[in-house]
Specification:
Jelly Rolls; seven-stranded mixed β-sheet; seven-stranded antiparallel β-sheet; globular
Amino acid sequence: MITCRTAKQCGQADYGWLQARYTFSFGHYFDPDLMGYASLRVLNQEVLEANASFKPRTYPNVDVLNILLQGQAEYRDSEGHSWKAGVDDCILISSQPKVSYSEQNIDASGPLTRLQLWLDACPNQTNPLFQRLSLSHQAYTLIASPTGEQGSLQLRQQVWIHHIQLQAGEQYQVSLRGSRAYMQSIYGSLILENMNAESCQKLGCGDGAFINDEKQIIFKAVKPVRLLLLDLPV
């Protein structure tokens, strides 16, 4: 079964220096029926104006994945570490107890646009504090996985995050490991369907979809499209 969640249905925020869209409950936006999905706690798209920054904050026991779509960012933690990233970089931070983290748009002339995901982390697993992967323009990339397979970032959870980029008329098929998945469109227009075309949805820019009890999903690009697919067995 495929259930859409359009961009218009998401929580919205405009603080002047920050514009945000929240898929799940976050900050001032609260929906008791949308506190996350499986081990996916947060999925935000946020745009920071030039030189804007998030103040240092601590996280619960999560892996924080930032996917930069526009601009440049610098990340710092209270232990003295700092990292910089640019367009198409995927940054994975293994948050640590009592450690605070900040994020700044270091582009003085333009906005920073990025997706941010929080995923529940297994408390007994130790991973590198900071991992980076740069996306290419190929149709498929495995961004993150539990074992770091195919050169992907290593998560502290049984989750596989796929990045798919298609031109109009192209299609791509993914086999799912479990009964739940979530798809997030970054831009473009696509048709999302199961193997038998019994469950079929058309989605646009910023739309998402809950996927339940499907073994395989087919993505068909109506217009050039870029999307994430999170395979969430746990």
